[in-house]
Automatic annotation (TrEMBL):
The keyword Repeat applies. One of its GO terms (biological process) is regulation of apoptotic process. SUPFAM superfamilies: DEATH domain, P-loop containing nucleoside triphosphate hydrolases, WD40 repeat-like. The lineage of its organism: Eukaryota, Metazoa, Placozoa, Uniplacotomia, Trichoplacea. Residues 3-93 form the CARD domain. It comes from Trichoplax adhaerens (Trichoplax reptans). This is CARD domain-containing protein. It comes from the Eukaryota.
Length: 1358
């Protein structure tokens, strides 16, 4: 027996509480004794989890794999715990599970109205008839039509029948039913209803369906492809229009109610006529049920009462309303009879010769003026459950009086009021129509409805004081506010709400999707267009919401921070976000950061159209997208790939809701594919016969075979295969899946060796074969032979056997329908081969490659092309390179077999490129940090395509010889704050000159530039906060050693014509090797520069040089460690101290355990002392080391307290060695660090940090406040650890900045920086602003941005 879904839901809902608050280590033996976990699982949870978070994760997975009894046993263990808080958790989980089980069936009754027994009678014969037919369509399929006049009780009887069938008879499980209210509506309204139903079913589309035929066909196709969901029962209540039956025919099992029985229904439906009149007994029973006294014999025999029942033809709705009048005397009953029979009242409600209008009007007339006025206002609401809070806002009365009035109206059957936990009101359709009639003779119904909406908006405004986001979600306000404001034509209010990003943030959280907000913005744009008003700004807002849906979804739905972070400078959205941020910081403790891009890259600027979150770790690197034109728009991918919690996830693209998920038996999924219709997770397509084809490549990559997937989802061999003597490099679908393209090398090679080098370099064939096969006829359409390697000579590319200097073929794709135009990538050279040319020969490698190969793109700066993707219409080409070698995606347009235009998109870590089938929409999946799916519409008007033929830069590059090309290289970038102003330095070099360019940025604009010419050879530059000189460094060989030159550019931002360049050091460091790292600091108190140089000798040993230079006295101190270490890590350094960890290199080392590990602590020199080694602590890897440095807080006191011990200590020894405070801290919070060889504790005053064996900060403490980091961190400088304002931590994998309040250590904000692919950051002394840079592996600057902390308590120039 498996765990019930309702318990799984409870676990998922309380996952965070279980993870954070349940002491699993204290409970694992109890869990084992109750057989909830096995002995092996106990050991795994106790000993093999790195931290509590991982332990909780593993336990929750185990708990989900158990049964219901195990879950309740777990609750009992918690309730018996010694800690009251844990007992409360156990009780909470148990109560929620039991409560959820009770309402589990209710979750299947989607929107099914509640029929209270206290207010209704059950017409048993009628209900039994409906239930009997429901059983038939449950077992098979079919359609039921319950027809009868308005108010005859059709809907009530159907509700009672469906509820009995699902709850008592267990029909239509597990999918339940959908209740869809139709009514007398237009085609446009029905289209909207079916769109909403589609979203609830999980159907999406690329473009919103514009016709009923289109939406109906999409739902029909969806249900055909999802046979389980097709078993759902659909109830279409109150269909008026005969044509509307055509558009709901997609349902395989349905019940419809209608006032009309059309001739066509006799063929398509099982007809159940409604007995439109109550029997006398039924009418009397209902009246008696609604009265406060029993139905005695005198009442039953009253002719006057019977005459009243007869006057309204015993219509159930009328009887219910009459019963609510609580009539007592015969005179009252007679007055009512006369009123009902009166024909004086005019109305336009269809009541089939029975004056229902008069009955309704009669009941309303019995209200006093105040009650009548309030009741009529209810006609403003949509035909849904109306929450009490919204009613009270509309009525503008006290809640107690409102409830009393609603209860009275409920007793009179004018509405149904539910007074449970969810207090809401339901109005009958006829009552809503009645209430929407204008009561003012000269006011049209449309104007009257507009006035009602204005009343509601006024009520909402008063209820929230004009602060729309302060209104508490009641299930109606955030869902329908925009609809009502548009109906009220309240333009000012509309503008307020649509620029209230706080309101939007709450709406997104309430709806759990950004989709509904996007629909509201769309509706507002349509409203503005119809009124000939400016809508463009809100279209920009809509685009921004789509573009950054990923960030909004991931970072706590904070729309304001997203706009401050991503929004364009001076845009309306950004300015409005600043205003709201200022208000928020005045009313609560909100903090915000704002970013300004002060230096962009040279790539053509273009912003993606949308972004989606997909995947959770860097191994989640494969996705596939279905064809939205086939009925579904879905994305399949993985989550937690490579872990025990690996899952395959299928999401609805538009709503991001999970459609399907499974836990595969394998932990690592190499790739995923989804079928065109989104129903099969496989590599397949749909052909003209509506069948599916799957292609497989054998494990030795020498055999290709086709399989057909039948309608019954069986996989059968097509007996179509092809085999080769060599390994197939690639197998692609082309021409929308009607053809496949294969290619292979005509030689054997070792895939683990670089450059596809042949195994036998003396006996190989420099050829690759490309074949195109037709799937339908299964014959070879085209075969082409091309060189396996090419080289460049005399401005042409020709075949070459020079393996070391040549470029190997890495990618092939077809552009034209007949495969006559192919695009080839030879490592980083991309070109076209036109097979339709008259002078073309299929064996182009023998007849002259140069005349057939037309160079398209030279990516010499990249290591290799990774993928070439073609859109289905063969008009767009997308190219990306091997990860980290190039941060651009190259796009090209193809017309008439020619490249017409191109552009570049900057996207670091693009893992895969996929065109949405049959569209020009490109999806780029970035999996290394953000796990984000970006969407680009290549037909967007904002694209800045550049004419390919007229691009002089590319053409010049193609015609230049290698020796003629002169390139400018950015060697290094550095930045700092001087007097609060950001300065950025770039060290630039070409073949003849070297110069330092320094830019000053003020108010986010570059206001001044400074240029300083230098000798060639400088390769590093440095700026320091509040130090007006720049420092440059170079190294050069001299004799047998390496000389290091350090120069100072004094007062670089001076207005002098000539800036002084002073050489500070020219020292031979006696190194036979190279420099591989350089760190530097400026110590302001004595005007001293500090350099820590990491070296690597020719023999591979690592060493270090420490240099201090006093700029006032020019005193220099140099300390050198010889290159003798196998590894060396810098753990910590500040103005005075340096801590390193190293492993000695020993001769004849045979075992890792023989390595001599050590921690060393150095003190930098000053005017009083030289650079010196203070302490060396040796340890072996078996016992490890705990090392603590207590840093002085007073500058006049330089004593450093150093303490250390073995890492391999039991609890008693640990407490004895480290004392109670530090010992408990190590036991409680450093458990996950025992796997490292050493742990370093740094303490300064009230601050303490724990670093792991790689120098990553894993825990920070201030006084008694503690924060742990379960991710890899970067701190960037030591001052950050001891700050009293903020602790700023970079999460390395995701490139998110986590900002904590320094003393409480509460998380203030998470800022995503993955869009910049952040490489380094530096902030000012006040920690109110920081600069981040994006540089590629060659240290070329790609982007530079300034982020500023704003409390917004004062108006600042933005």
């Amino acid at each position: 027996m498996v765990l019930s879904q309702y318990i799984t839901d409870v676990i998922n809902k309380n996952r965070r509480i279980i993870s954070n608050d349940v002491p699993l280590l204290d409970l694992i033996y109890d869990l084992n004794s109750e057989m909830i976990i096995s002995d092996d699982e106990l050991v795994k949870l106790r000993d093999k989890c790195d931290n509590n978070k991982q332990r909780a994760f593993e336990f929750i997975q185990l708990l989900k794999s158990r049964n219901d009894e195990n879950f309740f046993q777990f609750c009992s263990i918690l309730k018996e715990a010694q800690v009251q808080h844990v007992q409360n958790i156990g009780q909470k989980l148990e109560n929620e599970a039991k409560a959820t089980k009770i309402c589990d069936d209710e979750n299947l009754l989607r929107n099914l109205p509640i029929i209270p027994e206290s207010d209704y009678i059950t017409r048993n014969e009628f209900v039994n008839t409906i239930c009997s037919e429901l059983k038939r369509i449950h077992e098979n399929s079919g359609h039921i039509l319950v027809h009868g006049m308005a108010g005859s009780g059709k809907s009530v009887a159907v509700c009672q029948s469906v509820r009995r069938s699902i709850e008592a008879d267990n029909y239509f499980k597990p999918h339940g039913c959908y209740w869809i209210k139709i009514g007398n509506i237009s085609d446009e309204k029905l289209l909207s209803i079916l769109k909403n139903l589609s979203v609830r079913l999980g159907i999406v589309w690329v473009q919103s369906p514009q016709t009923l035929d289109e939406i109906s066909a999409k739902i029909d196709r969806f249900l055909q492809d999802n046979s389980e969901i097709a078993r759902t029962l659909f109830i279409f209540d109150d269909i008026w229009n005969e044509r509307h039956y055509d558009y709901v025919a997609f349902a395989k099992k349905s019940v419809a109610t209608s006032r009309f029985n059309y001739a066509r229904n006799k063929i398509s439906h099982i007809l159940i006529p409604t007995r439109e009149q109550f029997t006398d007994d039924e009418a009397m029973a209902l009246i008696a049920k609604r009265r406060e006294y029993d139905c005695h014999q005198t009442f039953l025999n009253s002719d006057t009462v019977k005459n009243v029942i007869k006057s309204c033809a015993a219509l159930p709705l009328a009887i219910s309303i009459i019963a609510g009048l609580d009539l007592q005397s015969d005179e009252e009953w007679e007055e009512i009879r006369k009123r009902i029979c009166s024909k004086d009242l005019m109305n336009d409600l269809p009541d089939y010769e029975l004056n229902v209008f008069n009955t309704l009007d009669l009941s309303v007339s019995k209200l006093n003026d105040s009650e009548k006025s309030l009741f009529r206002l209810l006609g403003v609401f949509r035909a849904v459950e109306i929450p009490l809070a919204s009613v009270i806002c509309l009525w503008k009365i006290e809640i107690t009086k409102g409830i009393e009035l609603l209860k009275m109206l409920n007793r009179r059957s004018l509405l149904k009021y539910s007074g449970g936990k969810r207090r809401y009101v339901v109005l009958h359709d006829l009552m809503i129509q009645y209430l929407q009639q204008s009561t003012i003779s000269n006011l049209s119904r449309q104007e009257y409805h507009k006035s009602l909406n204005k009343e509601l908006i006024d009520g909402y405004f008063a209820g929230c004081g004009g602060n729309w986001s302060s209104y508490k979600d009641d299930g109606y306000f955030y869902q329908y506010l925009i609809y009502h404001v548009i109906q009220a034509e309240a333009d000012d209010i509309l503008h307020q709400v649509m620029t209230d990003f706080n309101w939007m943030m709450i709406k997104i959280r309430t709806d759990d999707t950004i989709y509904n907000l996007s629909q509201d913005v769309n509706n507002y744009i349509d409203y503005l267009r119809k009124g000939n008003k400016d809508w463009h700004e809100f279209n920009q807002l809509l685009d921004l919401l789509k573009q950054h849906e990923f960030s909004i979804d991931k970072y706590d739905m904070d729309v304001i921070q997203t706009l401050l972070w991503y929004g364009e400078r001076d845009s309306m959205m950004r300015e409005r976000a600043v205003q709201l941020a200022r208000i928020n910081t005045q009313t609560d403790d909100s903090v915000y950061w704002i970013m300004f891009l002060i230096s962009g890259n040279t790539v053509t600027e273009y912003t993606y159209n949308a972004s989606k979150r997909f995947g959770k770790n860097f191994r989640d690197d494969s996705i596939s997208i279905s064809n939205p034109n086939s009925g579904n728009w879905r994305i399949v991918g993985t989550e937690n790939n490579g872990t025990t919690d690996c899952q395959i996830i299928v999401k609805d693209h538009q709503t991001s809701h999970i459609v399907y998920q499974m836990s595969p038996s394998y932990r690592y999924i190499s790739s995923v594919e989804i079928s065109a219709d989104g129903c099969i997770i496989a590599f397949r397509y749909r052909d003209d016969k509506n069948n599916s084809v799957m292609i497989t490549v054998s494990s030795n990559r020498c055999l290709v075979k086709l399989w057909r997937i039948t309608d019954d989802r069986e996989i059968k061999s097509e007996n179509k295969l092809v085999s080769y003597n060599y390994k197939i490099e690639s197998c692609l679908w082309i021409k929308c899946g009607s053809q496949i393209l294969l290619w292979w090398r005509r030689y054997n090679f070792d895939k683990h060796r670089d450059n596809y080098k042949p195994l036998d370099v003396n006996n190989w064939i420099n050829e690759c074969n490309i074949e195109v096969w037709s799937l339908k006829a299964w014959h070879l359409l085209r075969s082409v032979t091309v060189p396996a390697y090419i080289g460049r000579t005399c401005n042409q590319y020709t075949a070459t056997t020079n393996i070391e200097g040549g470029q190997p073929l890495v990618c092939v794709n077809s552009i034209s329908n007949d495969a006559a135009l192919m695009i080839l990538a030879y490592k980083n050279i991309v070109g076209l081969v036109n097979l339709e040319r008259k002078d073309h020969d299929p064996e182009i490698c023998r007849k002259g490659f140069a005349k057939n190969f037309r160079l398209t793109l030279d990516l010499s700066h990249s290591s290799s092309v990774a993928n070439i993707t073609i859109s289905d219409d063969q008009q767009f080409v997308a190219i990306n390179c091997v990860k980290s070698s190039d941060e651009n995606i190259y796009l090209m347009t193809i017309r008439n077999n020619q490249i017409r235009s191109y552009m570049k998109i900057n996207m670091a870590h693009a893992k895969s490129l996929t065109f949405m089938p049959d569209t020009a929409v490109l999806f780029v999946y970035e999996s290394s940090s953000e796990n984000c799916l970006y969407e680009y519409n290549l037909q967007d008007d904002n694209l800045r395509w550049q004419n390919f033929q007229n691009n002089k830069a590319i053409q010049d590059y193609l015609t230049q010889e290698e020796s003629q090309r002169v390139e400018t290289q950015i060697l290094d970038v550095n930045y700092a704050y001087i007097n609060g102003v950001p300065f950025v330095a770039q060290l630039i070099e070409n073949d003849t000159t070297c110069k330092l360019e320094i830019r000053e940025y003020e108010a986010k604009l570059c206001v001044r530039k400074f240029y300083h010419s230098l000798e060639n050879g400088y390769y590093r530059c440095f700026l320091y906060n509040d130090f007006r000189s720049a420092v440059v460094v170079r190294f050069y060989r001299q004799n047998l050693g390496l000389n290091m030159v350090i120069a100072e550019i004094i007062d670089f931002c001076s207005e002098k014509d000539r800036t002084e360049i002073k050489k500070l050091l020219d020292h031979n460091i006696s190194l036979r090797g190279r420099i591989f790292d350089l760190k530097t600091r400026y110590r302001g108190r004595d005007n001293t520069l500090i350099f820590v140089v990491s070296t690597k000798g020719d023999g591979g040993g690592l060493g270090m040089i420490i240099i201090t230079i006093n700029l006032e006295t020019e005193e220099k101190m140099i300390y050198q460690e010889e290159s003798r270490y196998r590894s060396m890590d810098l753990l910590y350094y500040d103005d005075d101290y340096l801590v390193t960890c190293q492993t000695e290199r020993k001769e004849r080392m045979k075992d890792e355990l023989d390595h001599e590990h050590s921690i060393k602590c150095y003190k930098f020199g000053d005017g009083k002392s030289q650079i010196q080694l203070l302490e060396r602590c040796s340890f072996d890897s078996q016992h490890g080391l705990i090392y603590k440095l207590t840093l002085p807080t007073n500058l006049s006191h330089y004593k450093l307290d150093i303490k250390y011990s073995s890492l391999n200590l039991d609890t008693g020894k640990l407490l004895e060695e480290w004392g109670e405070k530090d010992g408990n801290l190590l036991m409680t919070h450093a458990g996950s660090l025992w796997k490292y060889q050493y742990i370093c504790l740094l303490e300064k005053g009230e601050h303490l940090a724990i670093l792991n064996g790689w120098g990553r900060v894993k825990m920070k403490r201030y006084k008694n406040n503690i924060v742990k980091f379960d991710f890899d961190t970067s701190i960037f400088n030591c001052e950050n650890l001891w700050s009293d304002k903020f602790l700023i931590v970079l999460e390395d994998n995701s490139l998110h900045i986590h900002i904590y309040e320094a003393q409480t250590l509460q998380l203030c904000r998470v800022l995503p920086l993955s869009h910049l692919d952040m490489w380094y950051m530096k902030w000012n002394c006040q920690q109110s602003s920081f600069i981040v840079s994006n540089m590629n592996r060659d240290r070329v600057l790609r982007a530079l941005a300034v982020a500023q902390f704003r409390s917004f308590t004062a108006l600042l120039q933005i």
